[in-house]
Specification:
Radius of gyration: 23 Å
Number of strands: 19
Largest sheet: 11 strands, mixed
Distance between the termini: 29 Å
Length: about 575
């Protein structure tokens, strides 16, 4: 895992150089369809060399790798919005990108999305459908699918997305990471291809709340050419003083997903133990406001920005996406004013709600879907995914999405911590503590990797994939005479080896150890981030008759070379 805090500590201690991180991210294998374009390796290494001549104490994001959703401008890289015919190459980066680069961040590339940021599934792109890091054909969520997976898979430490109806939160929920949807205008949307210009937000994906807060502190601020930009300073309410609001589960529609309903209850109970109070509240006005986004005239705002392009290039737009955007033609000016009047009433009801509470906890998504399930009912199931997210920007709310464990069938659950505009310090503070324990983290290096021979045993024990990462550069990997890989820690000549971190129920660790024959055993494995987790190690004596395959970088890469 690439985490900001761990990388920054290593830089400040002189244990890591930006050039090493650049080499690592350039070589990292990516899941399919994550990237649309990459910073050329030469330019990436030139940027790392430039940073290497700077003092890391002067730059808050010194050498931190990040990605940008491909509807946000980066100078010199094409902006496609996942539509090749729309592509252009901007001369200037979006102000929010400029701020990150000025703080020392290391841009890796631009990520896939639902075309024109229209969708919550991650499957509406000519560059390919993006699958969740949890595998099994599970959707990654959209529209910021590539950005979320880039963070969850350990390709970058953080990523920018955008969020109009939930695009910066649904993918976070489906990939087990933090998604911050700030107050509208807190991050400039200049240089962003608009979806609904009056509602759009730039969002942040990160491994944890502290990393999201670090990025927010750099990325926010005024932008002279952005009429939608807002600046505000606010102090946060400490977690122990937060008045928490929760919805009665029976009032929420989980689309029949009992596991997600149970995780919501468990997550709210965990939050209640950390806050001053927890009271049931009526979320009906919020849900009604959400219904206005796609069933009301705001869809016409998408058409306002894309009408000319659709007229000239309609055949170059995915039929489903084109149909949604052109649906804005059915609304009249009178419809628009009626909807705005009702929204104002719902905003007043929401303001009264937040006089009683500081934070509202809701599920981020009612349920999860596979790519096949989305293909069977693309519109209905997309609408289901946005049920608990699409009201936020209409009501001018801030939201942080945090992982909330897993359902009994192994799918990710998530909570949204919601507050009025400019309450990011309160929300991030509350999000800083884990909501639910997910088990013992174990690093696997060979036959227990996803898709390998013994992965099914790990899943059968209740194991859940957490992230892909690499070890610290102090290991060698051997192909043992018994036909299995063995990871050995060495004093000199070590390299970073690809591993996966899985969460295993504590009660199952003993069974897992019992299923592993000598010379393999469980011990402590040091990760590139500086963390230490339990993991599979090999006793050194067994490598005498083995083949050193460290140069491949990992078991999968070795197998791919062997197959050629």
């Amino acid at each position: 895992m690439l985490a900001i805090a761990g990388l920054r500590t290593a830089y400040l201690r002189g244990e890591l150089k930006p050039a090493e991180v650049a080499d690592r991210v350039a070589a990292a294998p990516a899941p399919p369809a994550v990237w649309i374009s990459r910073v050329p390796e030469e330019a990436l290494r030139d940027r790392a060399a430039e940073l290497g001549r700077r003092d890391p104490r002067e730059l808050p994001l010194y050498g931190i790798p990040f990605a940008v959703k491909d509807n946000i401008d980066v100078a010199g890289l094409p902006t496609t919005a996942a539509c090749p015919a729309f592509a252009y190459t901007p001369a200037r980066s979006a102000p929010v990108v400029d701020r990150l680069l000025a703080a020392g961040a290391l841009l890796v590339g631009k990520t896939n999305l639902d075309q024109f940021a229209t969708g919550l599934t991650g499957s509406r792109s000519p560059y390919g459908a993006v699958e969740s890091v949890f595998g099994g054909g599970l959707i990654a969520g959209g529209s910021s699918s590539g950005s979320a997976v880039a963070v969850a898979a350990g390709l970058v430490a953080f990523a920018l997305g955008t969020d109009t109806a939930g695009s910066g939160r649904v993918p976070a929920a489906l990939n087990g990471i933090v998604g911050l949807k700030p107050t509208r205008g807190l991050l400039s949307t200049a240089g962003v291809v608009p979806a609904c210009r009056s509602l759009d937000c730039v969002s942040i994906f990160a491994q944890d709340a502290a990393d999201a807060a670090a990025v927010l502190s750099v990325a926010s601020g005024p932008a002279a050419d952005d009429p939608w930009c807002r600046v505000h300073e606010a102090a946060g309410v400490p977690p122990e003083a937060v008045r928490l609001g929760v919805a009665r589960p029976e009032t929420l529609d989980f689309d029949g997903d009992r596991g997600q309903a149970e995780r919501y209850v468990a997550g709210c109970l965990a939050l209640a133990r950390r806050t001053a109070s927890a009271d049931p509240v009526d979320v009906g006005p919020l849900l009604e406001a959400g219904g206005l986004l796609y069933d009301g005239p705001w869809v016409a705002e998408r058409l306002a920005d894309l009408e000319d392009f659709l007229r000239d290039h309609g055949a170059d737009v995915l039929p489903l996406t084109r149909g949604i955007i052109e649906g804005g033609r059915r609304f009249s000016a009178a419809d628009t004013f009626r909807a705005r009047h009702r929204l104002q009433e719902l905003r007043a009801a929401t303001a009264r709600l937040f006089e009683r509470i500081d934070v509202l906890a809701l599920p981020t998504i009612p349920t999860t879907f596979t790519l096949d399930e989305i293909a069977a009912e693309p519109l209905r199931r997309n609408a289901v995914l946005g049920r608990f997210t699409q009201f936020a920007n209409l009501l001018d709310l801030a939201v942080v999405t945090v992982p909330n464990g897993h359902t009994p069938d192994g799918r990710p659950a998530s909570l949204s911590l919601i507050g009025p505009a400019f309450t990011e310090p309160t929300l991030l503070g509350l999000a800083g503590a884990p909501v639910a324990a997910t088990g013992t983290e174990i690093a696997v290096v060979g036959h227990h990797l996803r898709g390998e021979a013994r992965n099914g045993e790990l899943v059968a024990l209740g194991g859940r994939f957490v992230r892909a990462t690499r070890t610290a550069p102090c290991y060698r990997l051997f192909y043992l005479a018994t036909g299995v890989p063995g990871l050995v820690r060495v004093a000199d000549g070590g390299v970073a080896i690809e591993v996966e971190v899985w969460s295993v129920p504590p009660a199952a660790v003993g069974a897992l150890l019992g299923s592993v024959p000598p010379p393999l055993s469980l011990g402590h494995v040091s990760l590139a981030s500086g963390e230490r987790v339990t993991g599979f190690l090999c006793e050194a004596y067994a490598t005498a008759d083995g083949l050193d395959i460290s140069a491949s970088g990992g078991w999968r890469a070795f197998r791919a070379l062997e197959a050629r």
